[in-house]
């Protein structure tokens, strides 16, 4: 654990100016040093090692200095990191390009392309996939005017590729009925940190298990909290980037964390979650820890990882909104199978009816019930308006798919009268 949680070599190897030479050590200087040492006789290896170590530290320190270099006073050019979703539908890919000047809107950025045959998104004989810039965030890694760019992917003919879930979501959120309802989302992204060498949760003894769940949720202490520095670094990086992150906390299973994004309107929720995921991947990369969004990374008596999605419309937030919420829940019950199929891979290992989940095979709802498919808060019931929480999405869900499907089912989709009556009868029995 000490090695895993220690800062990277770049963070460790800071030395004072007095301990380093005034300029980088050249090959000629090394030769001169060795010749002088030989004339004096045998070199004591310990002194030579110390000097070599200081030179190595100095070199690393210079590299870190270049990484942190602010380009703003010297050029108008910026670096744009184009980010897209890979062939698995959950992996994030990115590459960089130089832009001639700072930009304020994605429409100012050029389209770009990548080799889709190397990401599982195109055949080798026709591998070009086109990136369309869609959202911009400040780059917390490069600083300055540099940016992160969330993109979606298309064929050269302009058709969205199968893993481009944003395109369909944009169609839903551009529907006037959806626009008028101003859908709000608050997404609770859970994730698990793994030790890089054994793929076992951070803080767990290798090949063994920690004490039972109980003291870890929102806990503090070396025996309860594992990975807080990563969570805190991610929190600040997201705020810097302009992501609408609203909080973080340690989760029930040790080594598991959560961050919340929102309230966000429409497709913005998906853009912000994907940008936050990318930043988290980069931070764990630097820390030498593995990030997983698997919904049940450890089988047994451990909580899984979800992506609970809080949702409301304008009608739900106004007087009499609780009746609109109940109508939305009725619609959600009728499309339970369709939602489950789109709510993440491996979710059946998580939605077992245990560990604060509902059964994947049965739709249910309740007030303040964390074991239901849909939870309604006590305040919402008391005030007669508010929001609902869909607890079914897995941690690896696509936020574009989930947010668009919620809006489609509750705003655009209308069930038949017969189906509506039957569903209402079933829900009355559940409650």
Give an overview of the whole structure.
With 431 residues, this protein is an alpha+beta fold. The protein folds into three domains: 9-67, no CATH class; 78-160, Glutamine synthetase, N-terminal domain (Ubiquitin-like (UB roll)); 176-430, Glutamine synthetase/guanido kinase, catalytic domain (Creatine Kinase, Chain A, domain 2, 2-Layer Sandwich). It contains 14 helices and 13 strands. Strands 6, 7, 8, 9, 10, 11, 12 and 13 form an eight-stranded mixed sheet that branches. Strands 2-1-5-4-3 form a five-stranded mixed sheet. The longest helix is centred in the first third of the chain and has 23 residues, at 45-67. The relative contact order is 0.10.
What characteristics describe this protein?
431 residues, alpha+beta, Ubiquitin-like (UB roll), Creatine Kinase, Chain A, domain 2, eight-stranded mixed sheet, 13 strands, 35% helix, 20% strand, globular, disordered N terminus
List the helices and strands and how they pair.
Blueprint: H1 2-5, H2 9-12, H3 27-40, H4 45-67, E1 78-85, E2 92-99, E3 112-115, E4 128-138, E5 147-154, H5 165-173, H6 176-181, E6 184-195, H7 228-241, E7 245-250, E8 256-265, H8 268-287, E9 289-292, E10 307-312, H9 314-317, H10 321-334, H11 336-341, E11 365-367, E12 374-376, H12 378-383, E13 388-390, H13 399-412, H14 417-430
Parallel strand pairs: 1-5, 11-12
Antiparallel strand pairs: 1-2, 3-4, 4-5, 6-8, 6-9, 6-10, 7-8, 10-13, 12-13
